[in-house]
Structures are given as C-alpha cells and as structure tokens.
Amino acid sequence: MWLGIMAVLTVIAMGVWLVVLGGSRTTEGLKWLQFLQTVGTFLLPPLCCAWLWEAEHKPFRWLKLDRGTEWQVFLAAIGIMVCAIPGINLLADLNSRVTLPEGLASIEHILKQQEEAAAVLTEQFLQADGIGGLLVNIGLMALLPAIAEELSFRGTLQQILEEGQGDKVQRTRVHAAIWVTAFVFSAIHMQFYGFVPRMLMGAMFGYVFLWTGSLWVPVTMHFTNNAIAVVSYYLFDEIGENGKNYADTIGAGTNWWFGVLSLAAVGGLLWWLYRRVTYPDQRGYDRRTHIR
Q1: d(CA 79, CA 254)
Q2: CB 151 within 8 A of CB 215
Q3: Structural domain boundaries of the chain?
Q4: Are 286 and 127 in contact (CB under 8 A)?
Q5: Would the pTM of this model clear 0.85, i.e. be above it?
C-alpha cells in the first residue's frame, strides 16, 4: 500500500511539474521539481498510510511524532551531528577511493559521471542571493527532506520491518530493520561514492529512533546535518573556492586524525544518549514509553 501510494503521488508530482512548469530545467524549475517530488514521494505517503493503519486514525501516533523527549537529548543530537562533520568527510574520502575491477570499468565511469553531475546540481541549488535565498535553501534542502525522509525511512520502512520486539529473534529483526532501512536510505540517493557514510548515518538515525521512541530526534539530526551543509556553503562562498574546499575536506586527507577524533566523539555522545534514554531512573520511570 505504501509503495503504491508513493508511486501514484510521485507520478502526480512529475505531472504537475510538466504541466504547470513546462518541465523547466532552470534552477528554479528544478527546485520546484525537488519540492514536488519530496512531498509526493516521501512526505504524503507515510501520512496517508499511517492514517489508514492506526486504529483511531491518528497518524502522528503511529509514526511516533506524538512523543517528545528531554531537551538534553535534542541538544546531544545536534551536538552529535556537529561533531560528526570531520568524520563524515573522512568516511566519504575513504569511500571515494574505492575502485571497481577492470571488468567493471564502464560501470565505474558511469558512477563517476553521475557523482559529478549530482555535485554540479547540488552546487547549483546551494547558490543563494542574500538571506532570503539562504532561508529558501534551508527549507527546501534541510527542513523538508529531514521531515519527509525520516517519515518514510525510519517512521515507516523501519517500523514495518521491525514488526514488534521482545525475544532474541525479534531483537535480531530490529537490528536487521535498522540496517536494511539504512541501506535503502543510502541507495535511494544514487551516489555510490557517498554510499558508506550515508548508510552509517542512516543506521545512527535508526538506533536513535529505537532508543528514544520519538521520530523528532532523528528528524532533528537529519535537519542539523543538511542545514550545516547549506549554511556552510553560503558562508564559505563569500571566502571563495578555497573556503568551500576546506569545508568539504576537513577531517580527510592529511587531516585524517581530525576525522578519527570526530568519530570517537560521536561514539561517546551516542553512548551517553543511549544511557540517558534507555536506563530507567530510580523512580522506575521509562523515558521511552512514559510508563512506570
């Protein structure tokens, strides 16, 4: 049902782009296409399905959007993504060094072409004239994808694959659900040379969702990651090409040790967050379920 609704709404989104905007491939036209596809493919299908699947037609309850958590958890979630930047750059650098066997040289060439085209399009999208343009980019490339993609991947796919938890077999299924969802999350972006860091990031979002029981926490992390990229590009664009290159390579190459420290810091913060939200306090209060 979910995939069927997704397919229908994606076709409708493409139709609106073709009819209303004439299939415009200008930067503005492509931004509208991204907006329509994000809403049609990732935002509306989970909300529609959750409304149908939840007994009392409360989609926010099924998607775990009706649950909050402590402000310290949200602060830690933001801190994790800020600390993760050099580590993500390190992993992306290592991923980019992967070479396919000679027999797959043609495929590798296509993958590199796709990567270069995606980079050019992303840079085209990130260019902004003034604060107004920056705010539009934050909404289009940070806030909307963070909400829509987390609704689809962690909120819907991961929960479908989990099917409850309790005994050892079911706990194994929960871990499998997180990693399968992370794999699909990374694959859907169709960027081979950024596959590993994006998959690990997706798995991190999945475990944080599992620990906290609130979809708002991975949404916050996803938004923070995207917003940092958008704002950094805007700020470093004032410096010039050297500034942008530094933002993308800090933690990689000769600065690899910074990336390692970054990953260690992320691991420590994740451990703190896990202990904070999964260990009941002395009164027997479980922060995940709000049940004594």
Answers
A1: 24
A2: yes
A3: 1-62, 67-278
A4: no
A5: yes
